Amino acid sequence: MKIVFTGGGTAGHVTPNIALINKLRGEEIYYVGTNGMEKQLVAPLLSGDVREYCEISAFKLQRKATLSNLLLPARLVKSVREAKRHLKRIRPDVVFSKGGYVGLPVTVAAKQLHIPTVIHESDMSAGLANKIASVFATKYLAAFPTVKRAEPVGLVVREEILHGDRKRGLAAMGFDGSKPVLLVTGGSLGAKALNDAVKGCPALAKTFDIFVVCGKNKLTGCDFLHETEFAANMNDLLAAADVCLTRAGANTLAELTLARVPFAAVPLAKQSRGEQLQNARWFCERGCGVLLREEDLEKKLLPVLTALWNNRTAFAAKQRARQDLYGTDKVVQIIKDCARH
């Protein structure tokens, strides 16, 4: 069976694809993406699970009126043409798109070539690229039942998240486990607001050993915490973490919930359609964590994280009840069914 994966822009559009690729070892797998983050994340798989990385150009549609949006139709035609060239050569049985602006031209190209396509939306509401791509897709899947016209199947999460090693995680962080560990992560691109908030609150270090996944070129240089720009071993870091300060991407919150790490979710407000706030509310209303607004970080960071630690058992119990979030195996089966039929 030949499968083409696509999706990119941020790690949230790529790591679910990697989770599926790991489950589909033995199949003939290709990846279509841009010369961006997805290329870096898929590169380690090219020696084994992925046969080829196929590069196309792709352009993001801005949600406000801009001159670049006027050029988008011509650019999309160019991207679709590039994607069709790869798909004609590969002749896959099915295409799977995790979204992001690179997924749209690949989905359109697959439709024109009569190749079945499965797309998946992780957030509580669909991104613009997935909304448009759903018109061309054979199967439209979503993590939550709130996405219109989509079949709810749960989140695509890496299975290894469920099997992290605390000792390895502590060693990677440089801690001995004598204090509870606060993990700070702003997603694959990092979050300067979270980094700065922790740096500005040295009192946290009295209670916690602090480890920050700060993002590329966002090192804080702070002497009371340990940090790295990017972490490939998140399963072990989650196993070592006792509480987490995080942005509110759906996959990140699901991974924290499945790993039973209580969290304070700080939704991205600017340059966002509001999906992170929706994600945070859904998880926090179910007792998996607490919602913390970015404008409240300075005043509430210390008491909120302290309360999380003090009530960690109650939060973990609520998280244990949400293990149905894991939808990776369902999506694998749907991909196989579409390829066969």
Tell me about this structure:
- This protein is of the alpha/beta class.
- It has two domains: 2-157 and 326-340, Glycogen Phosphorylase B (Rossmann fold, 3-Layer(aba) Sandwich), CATH 3.40.50.2000; 161-325, Glycogen Phosphorylase B (Rossmann fold), CATH 3.40.50.2000.
- 40% of the residues lie in helices and 16% in strands.
- It has helices at 15-23, 37-42, 67-70, 72-90, 103-112, 128-133, 166-173, 192-199, 204-207, 234-240, 250-258, 275-285, 297-310, 312-320, 328-340, and strands at residues 2-6, 28-33, 52-55, 94-97, 117-121, 139-142, 151-152, 181-185, 209-213, 226-228, 243-246, 263-265, 289-291.
- β5, α6 and β6 (139-142) form a beta-alpha-beta unit.
- The radius of gyration is 20 Å and the shape is elongated.
- The mean pLDDT is 91.
